[in-house]
Amino acid sequence: MTTAEPSGDGIVRTSNGEQAALYVRRLIFDGDLRPGERVPQDDIAKALGISRIPLREALIALEREGWVTLEMHRGAFVNAVDERAVRDHYKLFSLVYAFTVKEALDRSGSELVERLAEIEQELRAIDDRATSGPVLLRFHATVVDGARSNRIKVVLRAMSTIVPDDFFGVVPNAIGIEYSTIPAMVRALERGDGDAAAAEYTKFFEQLSDEVVRVMRERGLFDLAHSEQAG
């Protein structure tokens, strides 16, 4: 799948393939497409006003991410979602970010700590935490940039998302987890303790995993997976 490119007006736009992938993820996450069901490619292409080519591109990417399985001459079929897969997903993120924050401290030092402390203060000044999503994401992006590693960025880009689109809208309790984690992480980095900062990332993703599992269980997504397997 192609990545988003900045347009002439400076706005980052997504490709048709990326839009199609997001659309299918939403259908699965919302329970509109059940495990084992065939992805209705013609209907999706018509709904999005795109050809089958970018949709095929999207399905190939979704198969790599584990959302669907492509079968020769039969189409794409939705994979079951289970709690173990969700927890594995966030465990992998915790490993990558724990490594990243230590490398960022080692390679960017006080420059990194200063930037993150500024973002922390910016978060404290936000009256409505529900609007803080972009700033929260910028905090983690700053950690990644501080590691000065294209390889880390490639790995993170290759990792799929479990919750499509508006993460903080779908998992609002994640904001509170962020607000409790970021100050502790900044304090650890100010002390020069990369191991403690890494431990904060590990705890953060464990809590995030619990919250996403809770949301998906409430939506009945695991029940859909179990019923499909039982059938």
Descriptive overview:
The protein has ten helices and four strands; from the N terminus they run ββαααββααααααα. 25% of the residues are buried. It folds into two domains: 74 residues, Winged helix-like DNA-binding domain superfamily/Winged helix DNA-binding domain (Arc Repressor Mutant, subunit A); 136 residues, Four Helix Bundle (Hemerythrin (Met), subunit A) (Up-down Bundle). The radius of gyration is 19 Å and the shape is elongated. Helix 4 packs across helix 5, helix 4 crosses helix 8 and helix 4 packs across helix 9. Strand 1 and strand 2 form a beta hairpin. The longest helix is centred in the middle third of the chain and has 42 residues. It is mostly helical and 231 residues long. The strands form two sheets. A two-stranded antiparallel sheet has the order 1-2.
> What's the number of domains?
2
Strand content: 5-15%
Coarse structural class: mainly alpha
Number of helices: 10
The CATH C-level class name of the largest domain: Mainly Alpha
CATH architecture of the largest domain: Up-down Bundle
In terms of per-residue confidence, which ranges show pLDDT below 50 for 5 or more consecutive residues?
1-13, 225-231
Question: How are the strands ordered across the major sheet?
Answer: 1-2
**Distance N to C terminus:** 34 Å
The major beta sheet can be summarized as: 2 strands, antiparallel
Question: What is the 3D form?
Answer: elongated
Measured on Cα atoms, how large is the radius of gyration? 19 Å
